[in-house]
Fold each of these.
Amino acid sequence: MAQVDVDMLRVFTAELELCKVKAGESVAVLSAGTAKGEIAQTFMIAAQKLGAAVFHVNIPDLATANAAGVVGRSPLAGNRRAVEALKSANMVIDLLGMLFSAEQLELQAAGVRILLVVEPLHILKQMFPTVEHRRRVEAAEKLLKKARELRVTSAAGTDVRYRLQQYPVMTQYGYTDTPGRWDHWPSAFLFTNGNDGEVDGTVVLAPGDILCAFKRYVQEPVTLTIERGFITRIDGKGMDAALIRDYMESFRDPRAYAISHIGWGMHERATWYHMLATQRLQEERIMNALSFYGNVLFSTGPNTELGGTNDTACHLDIPLRNCNLFLDGEQILDTGKIAVPELRAAGWQ
Ligand code: FE
């Protein structure tokens, strides 16, 4: 076994301190295959240094476990003993991605807090969370929780309304010290879902918006017509519209066209241009794209994460730039900038 990377150990220990890992707790690391052995070992050493009892649940690697845009089919399904072992821990560090799965919901219901970690170390450091992220995201959560309508508009032609209150609000600020709560290191955004059948309007994807499933910036406008919570038309002459149409059709599932979560990004160190600037896109996920400051995170597909019944495997996350966002008429974002002073990062207008 290689020596533990001192820098990685320092960063992981700081993260687990934010998660308030302490003596008397038990921490489980969940991984698949051999690929993340060093990360798993380093997390275990960090947790043990903080006084926790530590163990590792490792299952065979399944290539389909977490392919881009295909979620909810957890490799833990059917592995009852692994689930029971994880349930016995206070905290699970998930290196494989249980996202949206029944197994994850079962762990949360048992009071286990879960931290998903799938980005490589350089992204974990670049977007390392702070208590200020939590404060700002939770201040935004208060506003979103009480809203009855969310509206997004843009100069590109977007004008869409979500009726709210059927679904909870979910926050992500990159760490978790709350029993039963899930988070993803790194991130800083929040979201909810429109009520079933109550999302209507038009979303115009503009050049520079991001199709996360393809790690691609939109080049030519795409107009999505939304009626009663579903996309009913995808118009656009360019390749982006063709890609979206082809991708969604490939699932052969009418529920793929449902509108999913809606919210906005608040991370001042995440960058919109990141996918073009990085030299290591292959090994990275998309947390810069989902989190960058002032994006409207529009998405399609499943809603099981927020307690809904649509478990389609077709999920598109599409961060939109330069949008206005209103909650019951109060402006929260103004052309991609945060308009509410208490939600702003220090030094941002
Ligand atoms: Fe999503």
Amino acid sequence: MVRTMSGIQPTGALHIGNYLGALVNFVELQQQYESFFCVVDLHALTQRPKAEDLRRNVREVAIGMLASGVDPERATLFVQSDVPQHAELGWILTCLTPLGDLNRMTQFKDKSAQQPENVNAGLFTYPILQTADIALYRAERVPVGEDQDQHLELARETLRRFNFVYGDTFPDPQTVRSKAPRVIGLDGEAKMSKSKGNEVGLFETADETMQKLRGAKTDPARLRKSDKGTPEVCNMFAWHGFFTPAAQREEIAAGCRSAQLGCVDCKRTLCANMEAIKGPIRERAAALRDNPARLDEILAAGGAKARAAAEATMAIVRDRIGVRARG
Ligand code: ATP
Ligand code: MG
């Protein structure tokens, strides 16, 4: 059975970009493929989190995945550090990756600029660990946002190199895109990110969201309500594309162009339509938080299944490259 694999970093609260760019596809793909979804806490170490924050964020991201519709009966939901084979394969693939390939990665440049006081080697080799995440499950479908395109290309090249050197072992992982592969943040400029402060959180209430939307960038040429706006250049209108039905979107566009509808009213409608998605997710998340034993159980079962799958791959890998197996 074809496998799908993807991970989310426990670097902060999930946002609507994570939901629209990745999570909606997790829910879709789990119907069809053998699915592995992972909270990638080893990746998050590149941001040097406090231990207690990391522990809390791991649980919160897992809760977010479940609340968004990841079904532990269908998919294997687990935490990366519960499967030590990720780090093991990560090292093996590190020895197959040219420095020049890593040097081209724009995420490394972005993250280095974002945390100039902590430009660690893990930030640089991040895409290799990500390649290991995918390869351990011999995954063929990887649902991620557009920001991960470059990493996926590197993963394909690295795994082809492994196959060339050691014999055919790994399938080619294909990217699976959602309808919103790149959600721009409240600033109207950068990709929405957990670590950039430009996000609308998936668990936020409608009031909290409206508070943020008030300050969100719109059409820069529209200074007052009486100015006619251009929906095509407005990031809020782009967000309507993800949450608002086509007919209502037409009305909003017409109202904006004719200056009948102001930005605040446009944002109120957007907030209400977002709430229709976020509200039920927030409620399911609250119920999961109330039952920590259930989450422990899901993650323990997921970890055991993931370890078994990962170990099966590693037995082949160790044999092919000539390092010693355990036992
Ligand atoms: P960080 O800022 O810590 O890197 P992040 O918000 O970028 O956090 P990740 O954990 O790095 O989140 O990515 C999880 C998944 O969400 C990936 O598949 C990524 O491509 C996707 N994703 C992240 N941000 C967006 C976005 N703005 N639009 C669409 N998809 C996104
Ligand atoms: Mg990211």
Amino acid sequence: MRKKIVAGNWKMNNDLVATNTLISELIKKEKTTNAEVMIAPAFVNLLEASKLLKYSSIIVAAQNMHFAENGAYTGEISAAMLKSIGVNTVILGHSERREYFSEDDNLLKQKIDKALDEHMKIIFCFGEKWEDRSVDNHFIVVENQIKNALFHLENENWESIVLAYEPVWAIGTGQTASPEQAQEMHAFIRNLVKKHYNSTISEEVSILYGGSVKPENAKEIFGKNDVDGGLIGGAALNADNFMAIVNAF
Ligand code: PGA
């Protein structure tokens, strides 16, 4: 059975004090659920988060990383650095990285390869813009993003991959894809993986939905067959809201 996952992407929010407070609240509200729970604080707070969550089942993930081993890349963070503080999961390809930091499929492919070399788990994000969907190009855009970054992988690499469909027009806008739109795309993605690999891999890979997931809509979205959880932005910054989403399973 494939894993259910709810991951909170904190983006550029929460200083050290706020990180401490939010994690303490999450620990208090933590209970056994069907879903694997992850949070992705800012780089500077990952060590603190790792320490605070040492005895918790909540997993700490990074929001990004560089593809190189080490070297002259001012301002960047390597996989080895993340691993050295107990962070073994990384979000790659978020639309904000693509949009504001010009991360393209080719760069993401290099990051994916490095993360896999380092035995890290990857949440790989992709999704169309409204201008793509409005002209019915959303399937082709998503297909290309997945193909370009992932279809060179070996079968066994897929154990380390979680997919996250995040329509850009739904991120931080309050405008969620309908559960039907999410299901339609998730089924398309699963079929794509099946065609290129096989049904064992396509049935095992978790596909998360991201884009304005809230306690009010999580149950309906997560209720769809091919939706295996969510990547949560805004609503992950409040412990009650985030745990309500986790408990939607
Ligand atoms: P949102 O962000 O929940 O605030 O829409 C989702 C994301 O960017 O992962």
Amino acid sequence: MRVVVKVGSSVLIDNDKLSVERIGKLVDFLQDLHQNHEVILVSSGAVAAGHTVVPTLSNKTTADKQALAAVGQTVLIRKYRKKFEEHNIHVAQLLLTKDDFQSFAHSENAKTAINTLLENKIVPIINENDCVVVDELLRGDNDFLSAQVTEYFGGDLLIILSDIDGYYDKNPREFSDAKILKVVSEIPKEELEQENTPNFEFATGGIVTKLKAADFLMKNGKKMFLTTGFELSHAKDFIDGQENYKGTLFC
Ligand code: ADP
């Protein structure tokens, strides 16, 4: 199976700093997955990682955010590379934009590169090219990009590792009686049109961008699993086919 794993900033950042411990746990999970599956990682976190290196740049203006993303991307990839090397796994970096998927030539070229990397057991690490797509840097998240990666690069499943353990019938941070939905096969139009509700300074997406990603994949006959990135045994349970997994399967 070709699995795309997307990890949100809120999972990678702890106390305003890129958490080496969380990256370590994520890489342990990914290398385990890599034993039996092809793995593509889509990682956020560049802006926040940049902020830990150059705190004088704020994350308030677009120009500063672009600069932070450019600085932080090098920090992020270095940490991943170091961790993956402990498992003798090589990584590759691809910076893409959603426009790349509007161009047949671009997406086919990228797919060829991805296929070659995966055939050679190299883990591609993808992030949005934040310097060229400013609107996405401000509004979006990697949620939709990771859905495009799944669709256009032949993924079978997208796993989104978030700060929340699934999709609830209402916002669980506002309603204590919110219930997690185990399987979702259709998302009402009004849910897709909600305001973004990120739960964190560096988060930009909130649940809506995840729902849009799920909607896109389901319309293309693909699956998405949303679960927590803080306790990776839940994602592992799902991959292992356990029925009492914790998370939401969109299919
Ligand atoms: P990430 O950084 O992991 O991408 P976000 O903070 O952007 O995560 O999005 C997840 C957040 O969306 C949750 O922590 C929660 O505050 C909010 N949210 C709003 N409505 C819902 C809902 N119905 N189910 C789950 N989360 C919701």
